[in-house]
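Homework-ish question, so no full write-ups if that breaks the rules, but can someone show me the predicted structure for this set?
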Amino acid sequence: MASSSHIQNSEALETETKRESQLAAERAKKHLKSRRAREWRFKLWGRAAVLFALASLIWLLFSLAGTGFTAFQQNFMTLDVELTESVISPDGTRDPQELRGANYRRVLQETMYDLFPEVTERRERRDLFALTSASGATHQIRLMVYNDPSLIGQTVTLTVPTSDNVDQLLKGYIDRDLPESLRKVSNEQIVWIDSLKKRGIIKKKFNTILFTHPDSRDPELAGIAGAVVGSIMIVVIAFLLALPIGVGSALYLDEFAPKNKWTDLIEININNLAAVPSIVFGLLGLAIFINFMGLSRSIPLVGGMVLALRAFPTIVVATRAALRSVGPGIVNGALSLGASHTQSVFQQKLPLAAPGILTGSIIAMAQVLGETAPLLMIGMVAFVTEVPNSVTDPSTALPVQIFLWSDSAERAWSERTAAAIIILLVILILMNGLAIWLRNRLEKRR
Amino acid sequence: MDQIILYILILMVVLTVGGFIYNKNLALDRYLSSRAHEEIGTTLLKGSGWHSQASYHGYFTAWVVGFCSFLLFVAGLYFRNGSEVYDLIWLALVLASGVCIVFLLNRKISPEFAARTWVERFIHFCLIVLSFIAVLTTFGIVLSLLFESLRFFSKVSFLDFLFGLQWSPQTALRADQAGQSGSFGAVPIFAGTFLIMLVAMTIAGPVGLMIAIYLSEYASAATRKIVKPLIEILAGIPTVVYGFFALLTVGPTIRNFAETLGFSVPTQSALAAGVVMGVMIIPLISSLSDDVINAVPQSLRDGSYALGATKSETMKQVVFKGALPGIIGAFLLAVSRAIGETMIVVMAAGRAANLTGNPFEAVTTVTVQIVALLTGDQEFDSPKTLAAFALGLVLFVITLILNMIALSVVRRYRERYD
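A: Not a homework solution, just the prediction itself:
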């Protein structure tokens, strides 16, 4: 009996261990399953993060492109303007002083009224005249007559921009179905606009004004020419200052500096300057260059100097990396042929590091081109309606122009803001592309 | 620019280049004539018998002429009084001194003269001066911020500024209004900055870190090659573009979405600015964390895999722990970047100094207030403009501390695995 019970016991034990091991196996399987699920989830999170970043980029680019691309075309009116002598020069002397101040608005008004002879009421005529960009068109006529007084009495064909409301209506951004009181264009005006469009007087053309005009109060006359010239001046000044400072500091720290407290201090300084918020450089420029040194506000010279200080740490980092990538063999070769240390650095190492330095500098200049905050501090937010002629003329810069335009909520402005952004981004892409192309090309030759 | 300045600059270049060419050729002539007279055998020097190459004699002249005329140029610019006679004397002085130096240095051209050593000394001097500009810049920042801030704190108490709850600098309408000097309690500004930074980091922290993990551990080489530059594009977009994106698209989207849920949210809110700023910071965190994760030795990963751990377990329990200091460094740098960011918040966060923790409200930040105080009409002595410098000082000190900590953490981390 005892043995049989023992057998029974051992059998029971066996089945129990079997069941236990089965359970354990199941648990392990379950555990493994959950571990695999966790692994899968973790990977999914990674994918989601990448997708989030890429989706943000695409959203940003599409929303800007969608808003901005319409600004590259604009509606223009082709008008046959009769330059009546009795209006421009009533006494017939055609004195230049008189020609400058003549009533060209009247000339333009007559032209517009002639398009719709049936419109006679004063208020209606005013609405009709509002279809053109009055200040732009009168300026155009004034320039024409002033340069060539013999045109007086003749009829000239002019292409003038329409007012921004007409432009927006024809681009479909003003809803024709809205009640008239909520619309910026009246019912009568819509009838006139459609008629002008049908008669071929209003035509959509490439918007050259955006590229050739400086800033203006009227969106249809505003362009980025002044801002682009200002930006070019700033970038050139910043480059001319930051390149020697950056390359010089890097050469000194990497090649000539003894290891001591001073050189440590310089190195820490450069590393920290690279991470100081850009607006602080603007405060520096305001306090030192403008208040202390007495340079005037809003000028590209100060902007370029401030941004040179902002950009040179980037050039230092790029130069040091480029210097280190040059193998020791070339320097040792030069030294063994009797060159001095300085000669080996300047005649062998620096030329070989030049592609890397150039690439780093172009990227630093791309940063300078996009920098806005320091320029606000030194007063480059002024409303400037002229293209600057020299580095000491008041000016603005392309990113600041974007900031200024973004303040106005009207569709005509936000469209131009987005267009200016597209232009800025294209320039930046070209600069970075140039940097990559140069690096590939120069490195291959090595 | 003035014509005379342009002329003097051109003259300086002509003198320098001319001096170089003239004295180099002179040195070459003397060298060749010394060879012609077979003087080599009689000199004690070896080789050609000349210490420096002819071009170094030229460089030496160029440096001296360039340096002297530069000093004259700067001095002349400083003492300039606008009279035409002065300008002409100035021009003549630059010309005369340049020509004199070139001819005086003719005598120096001899086999024994160590022109190269002098030129190299001069190069070293220039490099030291250039690299000292970094120190000068930092010095300039600290001095200008400190100086203007001290003037501010002589008018407004330091404690009121740091702990005051009311920020309304705009109230000083007229100089003679007594008791209307505005209140400068900066706590609402600091709170707003912190709130937006928090929103930005909530987005950028996890997303950036997961991107770094995915790209370094999971993605194939081909994917990495495409995705990495695309994400770097986010870092290259100017902040004013992000600002306009927040204003044009993200703000209205958040407002419309909240309206469908029955809330009312302004277009300018901490959330809109924070989210866009988060997107901007993603590449900073992802690329820094990527470097840090790649620096963790492969042997640690292999050990973990050998124990049967999955990739994610290895990542979370081994690599992440190993890389933690570096990742913290990356996050600190990102925080400092978020605090100092200007254009996004200026355009999308609003200017009202609300003391609130609600991200759906408009808040203001340190950088926004600096811009608001310093753009537009300003008189330089009013507390209103000086307050901008006090805020700038706070901003500079905080970001400096964050950067110092981050850089030292990262450096120590690198040393651990080197």
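Now go work out the reasoning yourself. Hint: The domain at 183-417 of chain B is CATH 1.10.3720.10 (MetI-like fold).
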